[in-house]
Amino acid sequence: MPTTTRDHQDIVQAVLACSKSEGLKVFAQAFLSSLSTRDLERFRTDDLVGAIVHAHGLLSASAKSQVELFNPGFEEFGWQSDYTILVVHHPDIPFLVDSLRIELLQQEIEVHTQVNLVLSIARDRQGRVTDVTAANGDDAPRESLIWLEIDRTTQKDVLRRIKGALQTVLQDLRLVVDDFESMHRRVSDIGDMLSGTQIADVNLAEVESFLKWLADDHFTFIGYEYFAVGKGSLLMLDSERSLGLSRNQSLTTHDTKTRIRAEQVTHTDDLVVFVKAPVRSSIHRAVYPDVVSILELNAKGKVVGEHRLIGLYTARVYIRPAHEIPLIRAKLDYVIDASGFSARTHNGKVLRQILQVYPRDELFQSTAVHLSETVIEIVKLHERKQLRLFLDRDRFGFFCSALLYIPRDLYTTESRIKIQSLLSDALDAVDASFSTYFSESIFARVHMIFRLKPNAPAVDERALEQMVSDTVSSWGDQFRDALEAELGEERASTLFARYGKGFPAGYREDFSPRRAVFDIQRADSLENGADVAVSLYQNLDAASSAFRLKLFSLEHPIPLSDALPLIEHLGAWVLAESPYVVKGKDRSVWIHDYQLELPGSLELTQIRESFQEALLAAWRKETESDRFCQLVVLSGLNWRDVALLRALTRYLKQIGFELSQTWMAETLAAYPQIA
Questions:
Q1: Residue 410 has what DSSP assignment?
Q2: What is the 3-state secondary structure of 321-367?
C-alpha cells in the first residue's frame, strides 16, 4: 500500500519518541522525503526509525567529515538491514554524491538504497547542533549526509578497504574544491599572457574568447599543470605550480622525455590542443578528463612553456550549438570554406547537417585540417552502401578515436563488439568506449575512443578499414565483390542476380565467397540434367595427398553409388561427402564436395586437368572405368593414353598371355614409371 503523508507523520512521531535531539524532526522529514515510495514500502517501521535516529546521531556528533560502514543487527542496535550501511557526513561541496558513487562502482559495489540530504546546520563552539533547517539560498553553513545501503559484506578487511578508498575520494574532492578559484585565475593569467603577444596567422582574440567561455561555467576544473621547456626542447613538469588533483600526481604524462609540440607557433592548432587525460576522473564523472593545452610564449613569440587545464566539460557544452563555441566555430568556418560547397547546394546542406551532429569531443580534438578532410569524405559517401573508417590519434599519443560509418543493416551489437575488439588489438589499446548515433541516414555512426598503450604503433588506416569491412560484411556482399573482381561488373551482375541469394547456410559456412565464384561458373556451364561439371582442388593448408573434388549437377543430386566407383577407379580413397543445393532464380544446382586421398607423388598442377577429363569421360561413358584409370593419377597419363594401354593388354590376352588384365593394371600401378 503506498505510503501517505500521514504515514510520514507517524514515522516522524516514532523517531521523536526515541530522541529529543535538536533538529531531529526536520532531519527525519528530509530523510523520509528522500526515499521513493517503493523504498518506504520495503522498510519495517522500527528499522526505518532506527536508521533515522542513528544517522542523525552521526550528524550531531561532530561537524568534521566522517565515513561509517557497519552491519546493524537487531540485537545490538534495535534495528537491522539486509545490507551493509554506509553513512558519509561532510560539509556540503559540489559533486559529493557523484564522486562517492564512482568509487563504489569502481569496486563493483551495488547501491540498493540512497538518501542524500543537504541541510543548514547551526552549531555551538563545541560543535554541537543547535538548529537544523532545510537548505536554502542563504549563506548559512550547509552540511551533507549521504546514507546508503550497499552490497552486504562482513569481512573487516574489506570494510576497511572500502572506507579508505572513500576517504581518499573525499580528500581528492577537497583538493579540487579548494583550488577551484586558483584554477580559474590561471585561465585569466593565460589570457593576459596571450593579449600581450602577436602571432601572424593566429587569431589570438578567438583564443582569448575561448578561455573566457571556458571559465564561464563550461568547464569543471579538476587539475592544472605547467611544463617549462628545458634543454633539447624537453618538457619539465613544475610540480609546485600544480593545482587540484595534479597536486597528487601528473594527470597528463606517461613519458618523462616529451618534447614540446612546436618551438614556434604558426597556426591556432599549434597554440591550443585538445586531448583526453590518460587517467580516469574520480570526481563527478568516471570518464577520461579533457585537457586544454595552451603554449606559453615570451615577448618574441618563442615557446617557453605549456599550460594544461584539466577537467570536464559541463552539460551545457554538449547541448548548445557548436557554432556558439569560440575556436570550434573557427574550425567549422574553415571546413565550410575548404569544402567549396555552396550553402544552397545538396552537398552544402549535407555538410552542415554532418557538422551539426558531429561528435562534440571530435570537434574539439581534431585539427581544422583533419576535420575538414574527414567531413568532406563523409559527404562524398552520398548515402551509398559502403563502410568507412576514420581514425584520429591525439597529439599526446594517449588516445585514438575511430569514427565508423556502417550501413545500418550490417550494424548489430555483435558486429560492434567484433569491430571494437579488432580495432583494440590493431591499435594496441588497453581500454575502449563507444557511442552510436542513428538518424534517417542509411548509416549508423559508431564513435569509439581507444586508450592506447605507451608507444603504440601507427596503423594503416585503409588496411584496417578493409579488415573491419571483412568482419561485418555479409557473405552475399563479399560474394558480389568477388564476382566483380574476377568477372567484371556486367557478368557479375548476371550471375549474382541468378544465384546470389540461393546459397544454403551450410555452403556459406564451409566455403569462402571467392571459392563460390569459381563454383558458380562451373554450375552455370551445365546445360542439361544429364550433364555434370568437375573441379579437383586443394586447400592451402592441406597435406600433399589430401584433395577435394566437387561434382556439379542440375536439378537432381548425384547418387553416391553412381559417383563412388568412378572416383575410386581413379585411385582415390573417398573419406567424406557433403552435398549442397544452390537454388537459383530459374534452376537448382547440386554441388557434391568429396574429401579424397590420392596416391602417388604428382602435384595438383600435374594431374588436375587429366583427372577431371578422365572422370567426365567415364561419366559420359566415353571410356571404361576400371583399375587402369588410376594411372591418370600415378603416371600423369590422360584418359586416352590409358585407353590405349587397356587395349594393348587385351591384345596380349588375345595372343595367349596368361596373366589377367587386372594383374597387368595393378602391376602398372605399382610401377607407374613403366606406363
A1: G
A2: CHHHCCCHHHHHHHHHHHHCCCCCCHHHHHHHHHHHHCCHHHHHHCC
> Which residue carries 587385351 as its cell?
650
pLDDT exceeds 70 at position 2: no
According to the 3-state scheme, what is the secondary structure of 509-578? Answer: HHCCHHHHHHHHHHHHCCCCCCCEEEEEECCCCCCCCEEEEEEEEECCCCCHHHHHHHHHHCCCEEEEEE
Distance of CA 552 to the CA centre of its chain: 43
CA-based nearest residue to 368, from 336, 322, 408: 336
Is pTM, for the whole model, over 0.85? Answer: no
Residue 29 scores a pLDDT above 80: yes
Tell me the pLDDT tens digit for each residue of 487-520.
Answer: 998 999 999 999 988 999 999 999 999 999 999 9
Q: Tell me the average pLDDT across 259-279.
A: 91
Partnered with residue 276 across adjacent β-strands are: 290
Residues in the chain: 675
Q: Quick check: 620 and 589 in contact, CB under 8 A?
A: no
The gap from C-alpha 68 to its chain's centroid, in whole angstroms, comes to: 39
Q: Evaluate the CA torsion angle 176, 182, 184, 187 in order and state its sign.
A: negative
Question: Taking a C-beta distance cutoff of 8 angstroms, is the pair 292, 313 a contact?
Answer: no
Distance CA(280)–CA(284), nearest Å, equals 11
- The alpha-helical segments, DSSP class H, found in 366-473 are 368-379, 413-427, 461-472
Which residues 6+ apart lie within 8 Å of 337 measured at CB? none
Q: Which residues does residue 291 pair with via DSSP β-bridges, in sequence order?
A: 275, 310
Cα(362)–Cα(351) distance, rounded to whole angstroms?
16
